[in-house]
Amino acid sequence: LIDKSSAKESFSSAEKTYSENATLQQRVAASLIEKATRCGFKPQNADVIEIGSGTGLLTILYSNTLSNSNIRLIDLSNKLQTYASNGNQFSLEIEDAELKLRDIESESVDIVFSSSTIQWLHSPLKFLREIHRILRPNGKAFISYFGPGTFAALKEFSRGLPYPVITTADIEQIGFKGVIEEQLIDDKFNNAREALLNLRHT
Question: What is the dihedral of CA 23, 25, 29, 31, to 10 degrees?
Fold first, then answer.
C-alpha cells in the first residue's frame, strides 16, 4: 500500500519547486480540461469537488469556466495558490480523500475533477465507486491518472508507484457511462539524474 504520510511529507517538501517543475502534470491537466470542455459540464451554480487539488494547476483551468459555484478542494497537503474566483466559493479540506468521500452525501455533487491522483490511492476502484455514489443524476466526473508504463525508462533507477489498471469494463460495472481514453505524453530529459530530480521536485 501507498504510505500516505510519506506522500504528504514529499508533496509538502516540494511546495516551493512544484509549479516550475510540474510540466507533465500541467500538460495532463490541460488535456483533461480539453476533454471535459468537449463533453460539456454545468457552468453555473454547480457543486464541485476536486480530489488532489495540489497547487491548483487544474483548479485554475476549470474554475475560469465556472461561475457562482461551490468548489470543495480535497488534498493531503495545503500548498494551494491563489487564483480568480469568478464568483465561485472555494473551501480547502486537508483530508485523505478516500476517507473523506465516505462522509459526503449521496447524489450531492454535480462535477468531480481529479488529475494525476488516483495512483496515490489504496483502492482506485473503490474510490471510483464512491465518486459514482456522490454524483447527482447526469453528474460528471473528469479524472486523469498515470497508468502502467509511466516513467518506464526510470524503473531501473526508481521503485515507482503501482500504477493502476482501470478498464472501460470496470467503470461500466460501477455504473458510469463513459470511456477511458489513453494518451501518451512524453517528458524529455537529458539524463536519468535530471529526470529523478524533476520527480523529487514534484
Answer: 70
The three three-digit cell numbers of residue 108, written as one number: 450531492
The pTM is what? 0.75
* Residue showing cell 487564483: 83
User: 3-57 pLDDT, tens per residue?
Assistant: 556 655 555 555 566 566 567 778 888 888 888 888 877 678 999 999 998 888 8
198 or 183, greater pLDDT: 183
Spacing of C-alpha 125 from chain mean position: 15
How would you write the chain as a 3-class SS string?
CCCHHHHHHHHHHCCCCHHHHCHHHHHHHHHHHHHHHHHCCCCECCEEEEECCCCCHHHHHHHCCCECCEEEEEECCCCCCCCCCCCCEEEEEECCHHHHHHHCCCCCEEEEEEECCHHHCCCHHHHHHHHHHHEEEEEEEEEECCCCCCCHHHCCCCCCCCCCCCCHHHHHHHCCCCCCCCCCCCCCCCCHHHHHHHHHCC
